[in-house]
Amino acid sequence: MQQTRVSLIGAPTDIGAGVRGSSMGPEALRVANIVDALRARGVEVEDRGNLSGPSNPVLPPEDGYRHLEEVTQWNEAVHTAVHRELGRGRFPMLLGGDHSLALGSISAVARHCRERGKSLRILWLDAHADFNTRKITPSGNIHGMPVACLCGLGPDPLIRIGGHTPAIDPSWIRQIGIRSVDEGEKRLVHEMKLDVFDMRYIDEHGMRQTMDRALAGMDENTHLHVSFDVDFLDPEIAPGVGTTVRGGPNYREAQLCMEMIADTARLASLDVVELNPALDHRNRTANLAVDLIESLFGKSTLMRSE
Ligand SMILES: [Mn+2]
């Protein structure tokens, strides 16, 4: 098997979030030894350092959006960087930053897949559906909108990133771990027929069956992208995020989720977002994120002989 070649891309901004601090996420992941952990998995790693962009002006919403211009600039930078790494045959790993950055990242992955005739599957690991729009958002924070924007519902500058609107088809997404959805958002998620495995589904069927279903139907031509919002995890194990919602996957469930993704051998790009060191305890959440990323790259907690 060809060696995986990962490029780390730091995007130190909290421009799309309501609570500040995820701008420190990339450095916390580096401090948690993400580079060495990946190398120990036999992965070739290059750290491309951090992208730069506008600072956070901390302004109220304007026409339903907070910081639209700044969010656009950050996402254009992310899009360019992610697309460039994919073109080099490398695995882009976006270290956020808040989840609005998935717009730039996933639009780049989708563009790459169009260019190469690949099909795309996106796993959205999150406590939230991130499917808000201007009309239904309570806050105007764009980190609650990236899935809607990717599906073509959002402000022009954001839905046009990558030059193809919509950037993706809703049928490519599987959302896992969802447990907090705003009222209007719920209706939209149903209208767009998003495939959602919420916590009730995971409680009733277990993580094993959830992942079996979420990963079903891929083949050797599928590019698998994971967008990992750290608030996916239960706050008991992952306190270092700005938007904790109790009742998320525990450590064992999260490990199984990551291991089953690794088993497919299709993972080709990753976002790690919303890690907020300002709210963390001794970098515990960053260490956990790195631990789970190791599992995504094939480190098994189980005694398997295979
Ligand atoms: Mn999110």
Give a verbal description of the structure.
With 306 residues, this protein is of the alpha/beta class. It has a single domain (5-296), classed as Arginase, Chain A (3-Layer(aba) Sandwich). It contains ten helices and eight strands. Helix 1 (25-31) packs across helix 10, helix 8 (199-214) packs parallel to helix 9 (251-264) and helix 9 packs parallel to helix 10 (284-296). The chain binds manganese (II) ion. The site of manganese (II) ion (MN) has 5 residues, from loops.
Topology:
Blueprint: E1 5-11, H1 25-31, H2 34-40, E2 44-50, H3 68-87, E3 91-96, H4 102-116, E4 119-125, H5 146-150, H6 156-159, E5 173-178, H7 183-191, E6 195-198, H8 199-214, E7 222-229, H9 251-264, E8 267-273, H10 284-296
Parallel strand pairs: 1-2, 1-3, 3-8, 4-5, 4-7, 5-6, 7-8
Helix pairs in contact: 1-10, 3-4, 8-9, 9-10
Bound molecules: manganese (II) ion (MN).
Manganese (II) ion (MN) binds at residues 99, 126, 128, 130, 229.
Summarize the structure.
The protein has 306 residues and is α/β, with parallel strands linked by helices. It is 36% helix and 17% strand. It is globular, with a radius of gyration of 17 Å.
CATH superfamily: Ureohydrolase domain
N- and C-termini, Cα separation: 16 Å
CATH topology: Arginase, Chain A
Shape: globular
Ligands bound, unique:
manganese (II) ion
Strand content: 15-25%
Count the E strands.
Answer: 8
Specify the structural class. Answer: alpha/beta
Topology as a string of helices (H) and strands (E) = EHHEHEHEHHEHEHEHEH
What is the CATH top level name?
A: Alpha Beta
Radius of gyration from the alpha-carbon trace, in angstroms? 17 Å
Strand order in the sheet with the most strands: 2-1-3-8-7-4-5-6
Q: Quick check: average pLDDT?
A: 96
Residue share in helices? 25-40%
Number of helices: 10
Largest sheet: number of strands, sense, barrel closure: 8 strands, parallel
Task: State the CATH architecture.
Answer: 3-Layer(aba) Sandwich
The poorly predicted ranges are: none
Q: How many distinct domains?
A: 1
